Amino acid sequence: MLSDHFQNGIETAKLVWSRLPTSEEGESEEVNSSKRSDGTSVESLDYEVIENYAYREEQAQRGKLYVGYYVGVKWFFALLIGIGTGLAAVFINIAVENFAGWKFAATFAIIQKSYLAGFVVYILINLALVFSSVFIITQFAPAAAGSGIPEIKGYLNGVDTHGILLFRTLIGKIFGSIGSVGGGLALGKEGPLVHTGACIASLLGQGGSTKYHLSPRWLQVFKSDRDRRDLVTCGCAAGVAAAFRAPVGGVLFALEEVTSWWRSQLMWRVFFTSAIVAVVVRTAMGWCKSGKCGHFGSGGFIIWDISGGQDDYSFEELFPMAIIGIIGGLLGALFNQLTLYITYWRRKSLHKRGNRVKIFEACLISVITSVISFGLPLLRKCSACPESEANSDLECPRPPGMYGNYVNFYCSKDNEYNDLATIFFNTQDDAIRNLFSAKTFHEYSAQSLLTFLVMFYTLAVVTFGTAVPAGQFVPGIMIGSTYGRLVGMFVVTFYKKLNIEEGTYALLGAASFLGGSMRMTVSLCVIMVEITNNLKLLPLIMLVLLISKAVGDAFNEGLYEEQAHLRGIPLLESRPKYHMRKMTAKEACRRQKVVSFPRVVKVANVFSVLRSNKHNGFPVVDHGRNGEALVIGLILRSHLLVLLQSKLDFQHSPLPCDQGVGSIPIRHNFSEFVKPASSTGLSIEDIHLSQDDFEMYIDLTPFLNPSPYIVPEDMSLTKVYNLFRQLGLRHVFVVPRAPRVIGLITRKDLLVEEDDDSATVELQSTSVRAQRSDKE
Amino acid sequence: MLSDHFQNGIETAKLVWSRLPTSEEGESEEVNSSKRSDGTSVESLDYEVIENYAYREEQAQRGKLYVGYYVGVKWFFALLIGIGTGLAAVFINIAVENFAGWKFAATFAIIQKSYLAGFVVYILINLALVFSSVFIITQFAPAAAGSGIPEIKGYLNGVDTHGILLFRTLIGKIFGSIGSVGGGLALGKEGPLVHTGACIASLLGQGGSTKYHLSPRWLQVFKSDRDRRDLVTCGCAAGVAAAFRAPVGGVLFALEEVTSWWRSQLMWRVFFTSAIVAVVVRTAMGWCKSGKCGHFGSGGFIIWDISGGQDDYSFEELFPMAIIGIIGGLLGALFNQLTLYITYWRRKSLHKRGNRVKIFEACLISVITSVISFGLPLLRKCSACPESEANSDLECPRPPGMYGNYVNFYCSKDNEYNDLATIFFNTQDDAIRNLFSAKTFHEYSAQSLLTFLVMFYTLAVVTFGTAVPAGQFVPGIMIGSTYGRLVGMFVVTFYKKLNIEEGTYALLGAASFLGGSMRMTVSLCVIMVEITNNLKLLPLIMLVLLISKAVGDAFNEGLYEEQAHLRGIPLLESRPKYHMRKMTAKEACRRQKVVSFPRVVKVANVFSVLRSNKHNGFPVVDHGRNGEALVIGLILRSHLLVLLQSKLDFQHSPLPCDQGVGSIPIRHNFSEFVKPASSTGLSIEDIHLSQDDFEMYIDLTPFLNPSPYIVPEDMSLTKVYNLFRQLGLRHVFVVPRAPRVIGLITRKDLLVEEDDDSATVELQSTSVRAQRSDKE
């Protein structure tokens, strides 16, 4: 059936194919360059697993040793990602804690003399920190704004947002989040750490940053999108592991929330990366214990250890816990909706006006935040310290910014504390610790908690979307633990049991709000357990998450999905849409005119086709022995552009360049075909050809993907979607129904043993069948 | 292109397709009925997602309300699985603890007078328990022998082992494991609990047990293999969650170890099931605390709580920990290899001889185990109790079978204990607790530990494969914690630091042996953390697992994979084999003669084709408008058999039965097409037709799957494998290369919004394209 000259090429390709180390699917996505309102452009990944003949040829020359080396490098890179992300996390933590600690210490020193002067100093320090952050972001790394998780999710789903994984984004993220978190805004450093991990991974994967001349030769190993994406997955897990010191949570986060194509082989590597992060962070913290890290240093590996808290629960408690779940779902869904509206408005009207507006906005929010967090506790009347009975380790009162409960702030008497200041005029980590704390019954008045809840919720909504690196985990925990503690107070009062702790309810509240907003399930549950080190509460956290997610899902999508939509990142969900059941493959691509190339094509034709449309893949059609047409493969726009630019493969003759099996000369270094992450890649406008060039021909055989996946024209779109999504494809050919079936492949055909060569396979499979029929 | 009369059918099918609630892939596997040496037959799943026209018609009549009901039932069943598995676990636990507790109490009471009499009583009680177990298994439920995990893994991979999910297997598993574990054999109850969970799930999924008349009408909901498999996945997770009281570990176990096709939607449901199990088990244990459960009752929710143990670790400790990892890898791989040989020999020579040999074998092993576990401690000299200083809660000595360390057994003085009896003459749970225990330096002598290690390892290897329900988790933990504690003793002596606990090393040893034998990673790590409630050791467990898995992988495959191979369960691994790179799709099915049917086929032809070959799927070929052949779909052997048996669709005319869109009469109840799990289904030999019947015709259109997945003939087998494995297919058509490409489907085509009807979609997609080109 196949034409002779093509058959020749196919034979070669088959031979070469056999030695290709990376032949799996998992391709990425096409250009979709709609300009975004903030000036950055969303661009889909323009590279895929290079699967053409010539690339395989190059790979094959390297043999089995290379495969071993390749695997070794993967693990080594996983190690590097772990170390890098761990160190970045430690650096950010130490910097934030020191800035914040120093800020509170200075303010507290001054308010001993004048509250007004302290107020001004507090505002100014915060302003300076936030300004540094927003300045870095706007001037140097615009892609580092926000949490970055929607963008990373998009990248792993196959859509590359411009600039998201660059070296400058990494730098901007690290220093930007130090400023924004240290400056006391209502945001966290956890989302940015995930992005940081992903950036480190991506830079390693593409062999360093060429722009900053940090791309040594030995790093240039990974040429396929799949390998790079695997590394970025490791980076995400490392980020979560570092942010929450939750290695298992990191693995699950990567699995549940960010990746789209998970392979079980990858799990082990991701796990390794997380373990490395845990070791690095732990080691660094051990080093800090000797006091070398300033204000940082007192924290243990578990961030908010409440393992000494409530041990057991009774059935009556399940009712208030369910209420917490419902509140979490409602407030979480509301949060998603409000941030969606505000971000939409911000993008449409505010951020269009340039960087000055962004800077002004962030600074304004900083001042408002400072005023509220300093001012509101001033208005609050202090409460008397509880009698220090058995719990003598709880000192009361304490200065703000120090580790512990019962902050003394604007109190007239010595043994009084300000409950609002305890949570508001404090670093977020300490505030959460205070809210989670056990054995501190009625430390907070309901009035203070409500005030804080309303104010902080508003601040978190308003701060979301400003041009600074911003995570939503810690604000979410703050909001959730506030109403959780509120419910807990009522439970303690109502049930009058001794073993109920308000801190437990605060924890459940935190879980419920995160569940209601982010809609994560297993990963969030494990993260909550790992940050609080209390396994016994696991079933309760599960219950609360189930309820809050269900309630939230009734209203809208998760925070990251909503934000991804808004940013124009087209995520392919794991389920096909309901309406696809009505459609066939042919209907889905009805409006699309298919442009195909012949095997040997004139340069002028290629050029004009690439200019005249935006398609990213073109079928290549050749003629068979009997003159009938045959689809011989798929060629990518990006590869055609490389061919046009390099001109190496131009030939004068319109005849195919067959010189026998395996002898098609390789003129390319195949890293040419790989587009670096976060860049726009080549465009047809960049290519300039002379009149002579236009008259030349290219034989496309070595550069095409000889067998893309195909579907018959009347297959249901649901099935096509599953194929596309499960295998991570980029193009699927829709073809007419076949005239005949050459064979059926079943499980049996795929279970042939490795060590047989083809002759014995044949023999064996016959004899196996013979044996079977004998037996039956 | 398509023939008119077929076009008509396709239109109908499309219309119907739109309302089908379960149109996803995830089909199962063909019959592969090679007789096994032990008499049971391995049979692949003979049902798949029913995707034919007529089934969809039936489904469509039920509408959207039905979809909601369907989802509700799924969650309700998840709830039932959780409750059922939780209760089964509690029942087994209480029974085992009571039998074992009563056994030790009786023995201890007797040995106060005569050690010989006690010895005899001990042996007899164990023998009776083991005999009850092996009797149930051999006479009543042969499929309940062993752990069942390889079989469940096979089922979820698409291969149905005969009898594995029956009601009698469930009963046999529960009562059998009470006998075998209570009888003191070197095996655990955890693997069987996973199997128990899967059985409960499968019975719910197929609507009860028809044989025992436990199949109410309201249970008959799930007709597709995918839904049933999802339930079984939930059941596995529930089993692990119940066995180890580790809900997160259960979810991860199901994800990592057993399922082959994981969908993120499923995760949430599996998680829910695990949470329910946790609540049920916890509630039951709370109820037991009041003393209603006899010898059971003192245990907490955490099985072996060592959260009070070692808190921190130093870098020097990493070296001995790595050694533990290496030992674990070596001993684990050796365990797999030895059990493989022994099981092979047992199947080949021993178990062929019938049930009496099986019973005798189990009883012999029981006696040997009893003699060793009673006799060896007798030979051991007792040690003096440590001075009871601060750790006054450790009573010394204690009677055996009670909760605690320092067992008094055959000691001459009052303040002496027998260290070998502490671990050997004890229930396994208590022995592990003693090995993990902190603050008990040098409780065991190296000599005792070594003796125990060698003896127990041998017993575990020999016991594996006997005809009783047997898990390998607890024996693995026993073996691992013994050498772990041994290494720990040397570390304590060598490093002379105060905060090093031997129990920590025992835990790491347990993790390393399980890692080296079962090769699980993340799930095992989480299970170890959850059973010991010590999150701080997580990075160390990770490290040890990494090493032991890597070492083990150098020698052989994991325990479950080896056993699955041996039992003739052909698992499709997630990665294609290396040699597949050399092959094309056509080569893979080269020896297979494709038998296809015309659209309207004579009954006699169907009958003779089904008799003459063993194929499970047949292409159906029709003729297009211009007389050319067209493949119109796939018909399954099992569906043809149902058609032949029911005779409802026989017709006299050889013409297609088109009566317009949507009007093909439905004569079947579609549960007829569903084969129950673990049964052999219809065979061609069961069908008897008259001569008149043979002259009739059947129109296959309503019963065929109109668009199975297709691959071009020269696609690499690696790509075919990925398609097959990722989508969980059963048949793939190999077709000639297409003559032309009708369209390309890309991400854009799959992102059409739901709420647009087809007219606006068309408009919108045009305008979007126009906008884009304007911008660029």
Automatic annotation (TrEMBL), chains A, B:
Record domain CBS: where: 589-650, 704-760
Superkingdom field: Eukaryota
Transport keyword on record: yes
GO MF assignments: voltage-gated chloride channel activity
InterPro entries: CBS_dom, CBS_dom_sf, Cl-channel/antiporter, Cl-channel_core, Cl_channel_pln, ClC
Keywords: CBS domain, Chloride, Chloride channel, Ion channel, Ion transport, Membrane, Repeat, Transmembrane, Transmembrane helix, Transport, Voltage-gated channel
GO CC annotation terms, alphabetical: chloride channel complex
Cited CDD domains: CBS_pair_voltage-gated_CLC_euk_bac, ClC_6_like
Localization per record: Membrane
Primary location class: membrane
Record field: transmembrane: 75-96, 116-137, 231-254, 266-285, 318-339, 359-379, 449-467, 473-495, 507-531
Record carries keyword Transcription regulation: no
Topology versus the membrane: Multi-pass membrane protein
PANTHER family per record: CHLORIDE CHANNEL PROTEIN CLC FAMILY MEMBER (PTHR11689), H(+)_CL(-) EXCHANGE TRANSPORTER 7 (PTHR11689:SF136)
Similarity comment: Belongs to the chloride channel (TC 2.A.49) family.
Protein name as it appears in the record: Chloride channel protein
Source organism: Thalictrum thalictroides
